[in-house]
């Protein structure tokens, strides 16, 4: 009888372990004092990521999540928003490539992810705003896939504020909004030239407009006079 009882305990512990793994894989968290019923309720409350239509606050405030679940990559094709997607996920270290073709709003998406070191890639073709998207991502070193800036209508004033270790960043498409990169003083020359290359030639605009690109003193010091002239030659104010 004692052996049978021990087998039941072992089986329940195994089930508990598998349930715990599932909850963590989905970005949830558990506590030792929770019962199997608590685990069951937690699993039932986890959204079916394959069916959600936007990324609104999906992981916001989760302080134990270290990686975005791989199962999310395909689901992001359905997203139309990533507002506060992973805001405040202070344990998050890496983000796989997300297929966010239809996302227009990425405000605060990774704001405050202080442990985040790299992002494999985001598709920003439809993004009209990236406001504070990477604000205070102080450990972020690389965003590997180019950020398409062609659809942006809102300025990027604090998008990269506090990105004190960001080195690798590339833009694609055509940039037509005021942009500040002074919050990312470690950007490589290659990264800075990618940004310059994306700047719209304001001299060719049908209606005259004035835009400003602010690199900050440390980034500007890396560029030659000829490289900086590429900015002003396109009609941009250089900050």
Summarize the model shown.
The chain is of the alpha/beta class and 239 residues long. The chain is built from 6 helices and 8 strands. Helix 1 (2-25) runs parallel beside helix 2.
Report what the structure shows.
Helix content is 26%, strand content 7%. With 239 residues, the chain is of the alpha/beta class. The strands form three sheets. Strands 1-2-3 form a three-stranded parallel beta sheet, with no helix packed on it. A three-stranded parallel beta sheet has the order 6-7-8, with helices on one face. The radius of gyration is 22 Å and the shape is elongated.
Protein traits:
239 residues; alpha/beta; 3-stranded parallel β-sheet; 8 strands; 26% helix
What is the topological layout?
Elements (H helix, E strand, L loop, with lengths): L1 H24 L10 H10 L26 H4 L18 E2 L22 E2 L22 E2 L3 E2 L22 E2 L6 E2 L8 H10 L13 E3 L2 H4 L4 H9 L3 E2 L1
Parallel strand pairs: 1-2, 2-3, 4-5, 6-7, 7-8
Sheet with the most strands: spatial strand order: 1-2-3
- What is the share of helical residues? 25-40%
Mean pLDDT: 87
Task: Find the structural class using helix and strand composition.
Answer: alpha/beta
Sheet with the most strands?
3 strands, parallel
Query: Distance between the terminal alpha carbons, to the nearest Å?
Result: 79 Å
Fraction in beta strands: 5-15%
Number of strands: 8
Shape category: elongated
Return Rg in Å: 22 Å
The helix tally amounts to 6
Query: N-to-C SSE series?
Result: HHHEEEEEEHEHHE
Spans where pLDDT lies below 50 across 5 or more residues: none
